[in-house]
Amino acid sequence: MLTRSGSREPEEGKRPTLQAFKASVALTAGDLFNAEQELARRTESRKSIAKRVPLREATDEPQSRLEFEIKVFTEVLKMAAFRAESAVVNAVAPEYRRARHEVRKLIQEVLHTSGDLDVTDRMVTVRLDPLSSRHRTKVLEHLCEILRRLGDQSG
Question: Which of 23, 45, 52, 110 is the most buried (most CB within 10 A)?
Fold first, then answer.
C-alpha cells in the first residue's frame, strides 16, 4: 500500500528492511541524476539562443510605428514636464541656493517620499514625511506654502 508521499507503508507486523530503503534511495538517486542531466541539456541549449533579437525577427507581424499625433502628444507632455520643473526651480530658488543643480534630485526625492493623503469633498490634504536633509525639507515646506496660496486664490 502507498502513502500520500508515495512511499510504501509497511505491511502489518513487518518493518521496512534495509533492502527496501536502499531500493528507495536508488530510485531517488536515479530521479536526481535524470533531473541533473535534463538541466545540463537545457542549459546547453539556452546558450545557443541569442540574448537580443531584432524586432523584425521576433514576430511575423509588421513593425508598427507611432503615428505622428502620438509623437506630438509625447513631445507636449515632455515640454509640460520641463516647464513644471522650471517653475519649481524658480519657486524654490530663493530658499534653495543649489536649486539649479539639484532640482531633479529634489523632485525625485519628493515624489518617492512617503506620506498620507486625506481626501474630502472639497479638499485634498497631503502630509509628507521629512526628506533626507533639513534644508530639503525646508524647501518642500516653502513649495507646499506656495501651492497652498495658489489653492486659496483659486478657491
Answer: 110
